[in-house]
Write a structure and sequence with these properties.
The protein has 104 residues and is of the alpha+beta class. The protein has a single domain (3-88), classed as 2-Layer Sandwich (YaeB-like fold), CATH 3.30.2310. It contains three helices and five strands. It has helices at residues 3-13, 19-25, 34-43; strands at 15-17, 45-50, 58-64, 70-77, 82-88. Strands 1-5-4-3-2 form a five-stranded mixed β-sheet. The longest helix is centred in the N-terminal third of the chain and has 11 residues, at 3-13. The model has no long low-confidence stretch (mean pLDDT 96).
């Protein structure tokens, strides 16, 4: 099973948000919804893969949401839940205009 398929299958069962991800989601300037998080999980793509992450295999996912804004989420699938580690609106200072490639 591909990693993205594993992520989506686990997310169908249970999604858990870290305190950090909730703080980022509730930032006054961003206000990221759980619906947007689900859009990235189920319609987005993996743009960076971290198989050796200290939290276990994780990855950075990206999608343009229905609100027409780019969104990144860092996820780590576990046996019985998908952990949302962080989420943010990528900045053009750090990312190319496609929001998939880090600037050098």
């Amino acid at each position: 099973m591909k990693f993205i398929e594993q992520i989506r299958k686990i997310a169908e069962q249970n999604i858990i948000y870290t305190i950090h991800s909730l703080e980022e989601m509730n930032d006054e300037e961003e206000l990221i919804t759980t619906d947007e998080i689900r859009e990235v999980i189920f319609d987005g793509e993996i743009i960076e893969d971290y198989p050796e992450d200290k939290r276990g295999h994780s990855c950075l996912m990206f999608a343009m949401t229905k609100k027409e804004r780019p969104l990144h989420i860092l996820v780590a699938p576990k046996a019985d839940y998908l952990a949302i580690i962080t989420t943010y609106i990528p900045s053009e200072k750090k990312w190319e205009r496609n929001y998939k490639t880090r600037k050098k």
